[in-house]
Amino acid sequence: MLSCSPDSLNPEPALNGLLGKWDATGTAVTEAWTSGEKGVYRAVVTSHAGPSPEIQELIEVKKDGDDWYFTGTVMHQNSGLPIRFKLVDCKDDRLKFENAEHDFPQNIEYFIINKNKVKARVSGSQNGEFKEFIIAYYRSKY
């Protein structure tokens, strides 16, 4: 298993494992990951609960200088402004991004269970209380 040292974090093996479309268990939400230009990964989180699909969040993961960042733009939150989380740890089956200054969440993690299952863990402190939620994703059949 590959490991990322603080001097050379390389999330690309794990990011490549995220490529494709994922269905969130128990919801009508999908997360679709693509890669475009080298070293840039993007995801679109879409809700299919209403009469037509609605984009919930846009995600971009890319290297900026010596560091990798997860940038999320959640629709209808934070005045539509993106929030950056720095990659702080990774393995070939796990990514951990952190932004200690953000109100909630401060941590976003992805765990690649196998080629057809991924878990996302969103956690941190909110109003002095620890909170987290975990989303189980399965590779979409569509």
Please tell me about this protein's structure.
The protein has one domain: Lipocalin (Beta Barrel), CATH 2.40.128. It has a ten-stranded antiparallel barrel with strand order 1-2-3-4-5-6-7-8-9-10. The chain is mainly beta and 142 residues long. The N and C termini lie far apart (30 Å). The chain is built from one helix and ten strands; from the N terminus they run H-E-E-E-E-E-E-E-E-E-E. The protein has one helix at 12-18, and strands spanning 20-24, 29-35, 40-47, 54-64, 67-74, 83-91, 94-98, 107-114, 117-126, 129-139.
CATH class: Mainly Beta
Helix content: under 10%
Give the end-to-end Cα distance, rounded to a whole number of Å.
Answer: 30 Å
What overall geometry do the principal axes of the alpha carbons give? Answer: globular
**Secondary-structure element pattern, one letter each:** HEEEEEEEEEE
Level-2 CATH architecture: Beta Barrel
Describe the largest sheet: 10 strands, antiparallel, barrel
Number of domains: 1
Beta-strand share of residues: over 45%
Indicate the multimeric state. single chain
**Rg:** 15 Å
**Strands of the largest sheet, in order across it?**
1-2-3-4-5-6-7-8-9-10
Structural class: mainly beta
CATH topology, by name, is Lipocalin
Overall pLDDT metric: 92
What's the CATH superfamily, by name? Answer: Calycin beta-barrel core domain
Distinct helical segment count: 1
Q: Which regions have little confidence, pLDDT < 50, spanning 5+ residues? A: none
Number of strands: 10
